[in-house]
Amino acid sequence: MSIFRETIKAVRITLVIWLLTAIIYPLFVLLVGQSIFPVSANGSMMLNINAQPIGSTLIGQGFTSERYFHGRPSAVRYSQGKKAQPTGISGGSNLAPTNPELKQRILKQVEEFQDESKKPLADLIYTSGSGLDPHISLKAARQQIERVAQARGIKGDDIIPLITKYIDGRFLGVFGEPGVNILRLNYALDLQEINRQQNQ
Fold it and tell me: How many CA atoms lie within 13 A of 14 on its CB side?
């Protein structure tokens, strides 16, 4: 009889713990996140003027057009298939520093910069540790101003205020280095161009 009683008690405790950890706590976190931090809780998604998602400000996006600032490389190709739309995908790599494939990719990117008579900056040829970093350094952003301005038919001075606007500072004011959020900057450039066309 005592074994049966202990079994019932164990089942009750299991159900209570399951209720707390699998239902009540997740619902509490969901409600707090959606009410206090709705943007962060939904992936920090950025919407265009048509309220369509164009990507997360927390994840690096692939930009290849000369009209846009280019971000850090990713080990995963961006926007592969329907599952990746509309935000694209990024990812890290488990290639060791001595891996010939990694070395070949880096040397190819260095050659491309040298062909353009530009200094190959680290954050434009190396992936970040996670492969998801949405930022580049101020130096890397400044190096691309001339190319982007020429492709868009504007002056570099028109771009500098946008770069300054979309600088994210150090985490907690101490960790890391300031960086420019590429998705925000590139979308701001598109908005600037739309406004300029409407005013003409």
Answer: 6
Strand partners, 171: 175
Question: Whole-angstrom Cα distance, residue 15 to residue 151?
Answer: 63
Could you tell me where the DSSP H helices lie in the chain?
A: 2-18, 25-36, 38-41, 100-115, 122-125, 138-152, 160-165, 182-199
CA distances 187 to 5, 180, 194, Å, are: 65, 13, 11
Distance from C-alpha of 136 to C-alpha of 133, rounded to nearest angstrom: 8
Tokens 């500072």 appear where?
169
Task: Specify whether the CB–CB gap between 125 and 110 falls below 8 A.
Answer: yes
Over residues 44-60, mean pLDDT: 78
Could you tell me the pLDDT band of residue 79, with boundaries at 50, 70 and 90?
very low
User: What pTM did the predictor assign?
Assistant: 0.71
| Peptide bond just before 86 cis, omega within 30 deg | yes
Euclidean distance between CA atoms 90 and 183, whole angstroms: 13
| Paired strand residues for 55 | 46
Long-range contacts made by residues 141-148, C-beta under 8 angstroms, separation at least 24? 141/69, 141/180, 141/185, 143/118, 143/119, 144/69, 144/70, 147/66, 148/66, 148/67, 148/68, 148/69, 148/189
What average pLDDT is seen over the chain?
80
Q: Are 68 and 136 in contact (CB under 8 A)?
A: no
| Phi, psi for residue 43 in degrees, rounded to 5 | 90, 15
